[in-house]
Amino acid sequence: MTAEPDQEALAVFCAALPQLRTLLRGPASGDRRALVARTVRAARLGEPIDRFLAQLGIDHPEAGSEMDEAWSPRSSLPTPLNSERRPVIGDYVCPKGTCTRVVHREVDTELPTCEIHEQALRFVGEN
Predict the structure, then answer these.
(1) Which of 4, 38, 42, 115 is the most buried (most CB within 10 A)?
(2) Which residue windows does the record flag with biased composition (Polar residues) (predicted)?
(3) Domain residue ranges of the chain, discontinuous segments joined by +
(4) What is the DSSP letter of 25?
(5) DSSP assigned state of 103
(6) Which mean pLDDT values do the consecutive 10-residue runs of the chain (127 residues) have?
(7) Measured between alpha carbons, how far is 20 from 17 in angstroms, rounded to an integer?
(8) CB–CB of 50/6 below 8 Å?
(9) Cβ neighbours of 56 (radius 10 Å)
């Protein structure tokens, strides 16, 4: 499955946004915070964000490459799986379907969120 370049850029930005917001707190980073806010606005409106990513120093991924999973989500942990039942296997995807971000479900990890749309990622179970 080949994604549109804008979807790839959106997925990278979505994964990086929590870390960006953490790093840009304080008065010294006001201009960069404004740039992040403009990027979020553009993403929500479906506008291209590649030029903003370059200004933020975020690399666009190679086509077909795995995204860096170093960016961690910051929401609550999901309900623990009951060991007597068969585990539900699947991935979390963009809640609006606007990007290609995929987060694999793992035990004892927080529910991943989309900072662009301010929603939890949508779970898609494997059949």
Answers:
(1) 115
(2) 73-82
(3) 5-56
(4) -
(5) E
(6) 68 89 80 91 91 86 47 49 70 93 87 92 87
(7) 5
(8) yes
(9) 16
